[in-house]
Amino acid sequence: MQFEEFDLSTPAPAVKSGRTAEEASPVTRLQYLIDNTPAIIYCTVPSGDFKMTFVSKNAVNVLGYRPEQMLADPNFWFDHIHPDDAPNIFSSLALIFSEGQRSYDYRFRIHDGSYLWMHDTLRLIRDDQGLPLEVIGSLTDITMRKRMEEDLKIKGAEQQALIGELRSAHEQLLQAEKMASIGQLAAGIAHEINNPVGFVNSNMGSLKNYVDTLLGVIDHYELAAAPHPQLAAQLAALRQQADLAFLKDDVVDLVRESMDGLKRVKDIVEALKDFSHVGETEWHVADIHQGLDSTLNIVSNEIKYKTRVDKQYGVLPPVTCLASQLNQVFMNLLVNAAQSMHGNGVISLRTGAANGWVWIEVADNGSGIAPENLHRIFEPFFTTKAVGSGTGLGLSLSYGIVKRHGGRIEVASELGVGTRFTVHLPVLAVTAK
Predict the structure, then answer these.
(1) Which of 103, 231, 279, 320 could join 225 via S-S bond, C-beta 3.0 to 4.6 A?
(2) In a 3-state reduction of DSSP, which class is residue 102?
């Protein structure tokens, strides 16, 4: 098959007025199409600096450069590619000799100094012996497409952020519902338990008085029998047989421990009520230390076998807050601290106030947090715990609660040394208005 050769470097005569493009000669027609296609058609030598040997005239319309400018400078193409995009092109351009074709998206500096995004397709042409003859390329302006892609990326990021906010709001709503359920359960438990606890406590008080009276009667019997040796001997034998000395000490201890146990039950019920604040929707003034103590009562079973708590409370003013939500924050921090230790640990619980702010510090001497995870711990669903051991929501919800109060959480950690969380809260929360 024979192909007619055209010298595209020589401008073809323009289509004469009064003649349609279809009536022009093949060369004129071809030149007309090349000069008016949306893409810039160009040719380069297939080696070295890929010097341009032909550039279609529409380069003026797209780039603002005349073809002869681009042909005169052997480094024109390389020198006008954006510095950030050039390395990728230069490092892979030689692949055109093995692949036969390459495509790139890059920024190209135009006549006014700004950059356009161009899509560049290069194809290697070989002669009859298979030797590289030239490279033919087409440059297409894709700036609008890139801007649309960037806009879509921004909108996608905004949508992801919105989804994250909605997810966080949903989780906080679930948490609020859970706390309300706990509060209702606490109210029911308090109602059902307080009555029997009340009369058992009253009975134990009466029993203590009865025991004291009986022990007093026994002592008086022994005093009255002292002048009568035979009766005194019989009472002494009964005392020894019954081990009365042990019974007197033990019954007092049993009554005292039982009353202490009843007080513990009552304190747990009260702590659960204080922790959850049934139906709390309004901001009110609360005692942060009371909230901490209530929370410690709730989580005591979680931490008492692993660690001890060192409380160093400062003087705090009352704080305007949603107390049940802050208690949830304290619980998350205390449980996390306990879970980071495997026995003989210490949780340091410190508080203080200054310049209209209060701070609560929960520090531990546990395993610490890896530096690469430290900036992610407040992300929803992020957790370093084993599957099934945590949802990754505790710190995320805590962050949201503290932020809602107009405060902030700071964290410092060192692997193998421990972790310290510090919650800063304004005394008068701005969100409470």
Answers:
(1) 231
(2) strand
**Whole-angstrom distance, CA of residue 13 vs CA of residue 387:** 76
What's the mean per-residue pLDDT of the chain? 81
d(C-alpha 366, C-alpha 386), whole Å? 17
Going 252 to 253 to 255 to 256, the CA torsion angle's sign is: positive
Name the token pair of 274: 């204080």
Mean pLDDT, residues 334-344 taken together: 84
The sign one gets for the Cα dihedral 22, 25, 28, 33 is positive
- Residues 353 and 375: their CA atoms lie apart, in Å, by 27
- Dist. CA 203–CA 198, nearest whole Å: 9
| pTM reported for the whole predicted model | 0.44
**Cβ–Cβ under 8 Å, residues 136 and 41:** yes
| Domains of the chain from N-terminus onward | 37-141 (3.30.450.20), 155-279 (no CATH), 282-433 (3.30.565.10)
DSSP state of 16: P
Amino acid occupying residue 279? G
Helix segments in 277-416, DSSP class H? 288-298, 300-303, 323-339, 371-374, 394-404
Strand pairing class (418-426; 307-312): unpaired
Q: What angle do CA 391, 397, 403 make, to 5 degrees?
A: 160
